[in-house]
Design a protein that fits this description.
- It is built from five helices and twelve strands.
- By secondary structure, the protein is an alpha+beta fold.
- It has one domain: Pseudouridine synthase (2-Layer Sandwich), CATH 3.30.2350.10.
- The strands form two sheets. Strands 1, 2, 3, 4, 5, 6, 9, 10, 11 and 12 form a ten-stranded mixed β-sheet that branches. A two-stranded antiparallel sheet has the order 7-8.
- Keywords: Isomerase.
- It holds the Pfam family PseudoU_synth_2.
Length: 243
């Protein structure tokens, strides 16, 4: 993981009114009362890096790395947030999960609204499309099994509920490696002991939207970060995801 205190945030796309970064795993988007241990935030770091105010138009979990989009003025912020709310923005994620996932699966499973303080609210519709890119079996015993099986999956959510992908993968019994508390603690311990790895293996790979001013279709792709890339090579023998 890069040193987020001293390394500039990687900029993937920038115009006069929008900027996208490759958010490091472990970096909060903004200050939160549920993460009082954090001293640095993407909003603060990017503001200082660019020398101007920035507005996050969507969110990524602290543990998730990848494409994070910011507006550079209030009008663009409101416009892009509206696009997200209307489902006009396409987002694609990569994840490494436990077990062999099906070739494709539609996960239509409502989730309870999380108020951020441990409380649960009403059920909200939540939909994720899953596509399996690669499966692997490694010679690492797990429980009663002599080997361990994992899948590299592409996840495309059409709703944006809190922790949606993490909860959906846990629901279908293929939790994301490194996820806490929705994942498998025994698998997380295995990865720490066998591979010295404790990063959540969820990466916001791509975001696609129509620029509100130029009306051009913009596609922003975030390269994999170090730990995800290392696990891709270690488990699947791949140096990058397949197209």
């Amino acid at each position: 993981m890069i040193d987020i205190l001293t390394t500039p945030l990687p900029i993937l796309y920038q115009t006069g009114d929008l900027v996208a970064i490759n958010k490091p795993h472990g970096l909060l988007v903004h200050r939160s009362p549920i993460a009082s241990d954090a001293a640095e935030f993407a909003v603060q770091l990017l503001r200082n890096q660019l020398g101007q105010r920035v507005y996050p138009v969507h969110r990524l979990d602290r543990k998730t790395g990848g494409v994070l989009l910011f507006a550079l003025n209030e009008v663009m912020n409101a416009t892009m947030q509206q696009q997200f709310m209307e489902g006009a923005v396409s987002k694609t994620y990569l994840a490494i999960v436990r077990g062999y996932t099906p070739d494709e699966q539609a996960i239509d499973y409502p989730l309870r609204r999380d108020d951020g303080n441990g409380g649960l609210g009403t059920l909200q519709d939540a939909f994720t499309a899953l596509k399996t890119l690669r499966r692997t079996e490694v010679n690492v015993p797990f429980g009663k099994h002599p080997t361990s099986r994992y899948s590299l999956v592409e996840l495309t959510p059409t709703t944006g509920r809190m922790h949606q992908l993490r909860k959906h993968m846990a629901h279908i019994l293929h939790p994301i490696i490194g996820d806490r508390p929705h994942g498998c603690n025994k698998q997380n311990k295995l990865f720490l002991e066998q591979f010295s790895m404790n990063t959540m293996l969820l990466h916001a790979r791509q975001i696609q939207f129509k620029h509100p001013i130029s009306e051009e279709t913009i596609t922003v792709i975030a390269p994999l970060q170090a730990e995800f890339s290392r696990m891709l090579t270690t488990l699947f023998g791949m140096d990058k995801p397949e197209a």
